[in-house]
Design a protein that fits this description.
Helix content: 10-25%
Strand content: 25-35%
Number of helices: 10
Oligomer: single chain
Largest sheet: 9 strands, mixed
Shape: elongated
CATH class of the largest domain: Alpha Beta
CATH architecture of the largest domain: 3-Layer(aba) Sandwich
Structural class: alpha+beta
CATH topology of the largest domain: Rossmann fold
């Protein structure tokens, strides 16, 4: 857990200076995100992708390269048994990865069971899936007629012969200019220009037209034609993407030796692909900064190795806080939500806290997650000091009142006396029917009679 502070310089005449800085907690995991890369043939793209990710300690690529029809070459495996039988056929073996890259591999390489596992990997497990262009990729690999055609962010062409070993230039779309995936330079205009000046791609593949829910980040220009290069989409709990080329390696080979564009692009793309893939235990809080109050509500979603909700798990949270605080808190099952657990707790003192949430089934551990939060006192009133006009207008409408703007304030005293809002009720009665008027009249008549008698008139 790391603390990061952000602050702004004071403005001339600024009255409230206590809201110019905030501190936030960042959970830094020592475990790298593991990506399975399946490649159907030796090619330059395979080599340069692995080389780019070798410098990224947060990502580990486990690759299986088909060298002949029945042989594969494995790299980055954790033990001799990993991928020994080829692409996994069980959910518990495939779901331990956070993302998958499929290179120049035809759809028929995967059995119907494995294809369904790929779908569940994205939809149910929440993993990321990236398809690359190549001789046996996309339409040329028979993917449009496979059961996984809806995983692609584009409508793949029905015909084959879509892969071409011809040059193509690249430019960002409006969405790509804003995306962290394609951010080679911090300055937006300079970044767009940098992409225009990248060396041309060594080949391209027609990925078809983007689907309605897809986002195209980069385009290719080929002899006056424009087609998507990089397109992404959300699918179920996960995400998919297509990169319609196998020629980005030229960005490295045809650029200056110290140009980081190729490696930076691939590191950002694969981090986006794998970073948000959830584990078997996912802890969450409505807010991780508690301002002037210590009430903590923590929830956890627990799944088994096949990422099915585990309603029979035993879930505990080990909370560590300031002044050596260490507390063990049990989470209880959330009603009507299998696999969800919750707890309520109070952070008594200001400072940083860390909760390690662990799920067990019997004597075996299913998984764990770590979440950090912070209590800060005496700061809430310094934030959100601006007028929330939308809320005020909503409150006035629901209570039968009215919202007055600054230029209408002069009319407020006159109009508010006739308001029927809230508990103020106007009750109009006839003057003669009021008891107080009757008593006054009776008093005047009695006084007149008494005075006349005193003076001897009556």
């Amino acid at each position: 857990m790391k603390s990061i502070g952000f602050s702004l310089e004071l403005l001339p005449g600024e009255e409230n200076t206590l809201n110019n800085g905030v501190t936030r907690l960042v959970d830094v995991s020592a475990e790298p995100r593991r990506i399975l890369y399946v490649e159907g043939e030796p090619r330059w793209e395979f080599k340069f992708i692995r080389r780019a990710e070798a410098e990224d300690k947060g990502i580990q690529i486990v690759s299986m390269l088909r060298t002949t029809e029945n042989k594969i070459y494995r790299q980055g495996i954790a033990d001799p048994g990993e991928l020994a039988d080829g692409f996994p056929s069980k959910a518990e073996d495939l779901f331990k990865y956070q993302a998958i890259i499929i290179g120049s591999v035809e759809a028929q390489y995967f059995t119907p069971v494995q294809q369904e596992l790929l779908r569940e990997f994205v939809d149910k497990r929440g993993g990321g899936l990236l398809f690359l262009g190549g001789r046996s990729s996309l339409s040329d690999g028979g993917w449009p007629s496979s059961s996984l055609a809806d995983l692609f962010p584009t409508f793949l062409p029905a015909e084959k012969g879509t892969f071409h070993r011809e040059p193509a230039t690249v430019q960002l779309t409006a969405a790509g200019a804003e995306s962290p995936i394609t951010r080679l330079l911090d300055d937006r205009a300079l970044n767009v220009e940098r992409w225009r000046k990248l060396p041309y791609l060594g080949d391209y593949q027609d990925p078809g037209s983007p689907k309605p829910g897809a986002t195209v980040l980069a385009q290719m220009m080929i002899a006056g034609r424009t087609m998507p290069l990089l397109a992404t989409q959300s699918y179920g709990r996960g995400k998919t993407a297509v990169l319609a080329t196998s020629g980005t390696w030229r960005w490295q080979m045809s650029s200056a030796l110290d140009d980081p564009s190729h490696d930076l692009f691939w590191q950002q793309l694969l981090r986006w692909l794998a970073a948000e893939s959830p584990g078997q235990v996912v802890a969450a809080m409505p807010q991780q900064t508690l301002m002037d109050e210590g009430h903590v509500k923590l929830t956890a979603v627990v799944r088994d190795k096949e990422f099915t909700p585990a309603a029979d798990a035993h879930v505990t949270a080990h909370v560590i806080g300031p002044d050596g605080l260490s507390a063990m808190v049990d989470l209880t099952p959330a009603p009507n939500t299998p696999g969800s657990f919750e707890m309520e707790w109070t952070a008594e003192k200001p400072g940083s806290y860390l909760a390690e949430v662990t799920a067990n089934k019997g004597s075996s551990e299913m998984g764990k997650d770590v979440i950090s939060f912070r209590r800060e006192d005496g700061v809430a009133e310094n934030f959100h000091t601006g007028q929330n006009r939308e809320l005020l207008e909503k409150l006035s409408d629901e209570t039968g009142g009215r919202y007055w703007t600054e230029d209408e304030i002069a009319r407020l005293p006159k109009e508010i006396s006739y308001s029927e809002a809230g508990i103020s009720v106007r009750d109009t009665k006839e003057l003669w029917d009021m008891p107080v008027v009757f008593l006054v009249l009776l008093g005047l008549m009695s006084a007149d009679w008494l005075l006349r008698r005193k003076w001897g008139v009556v």
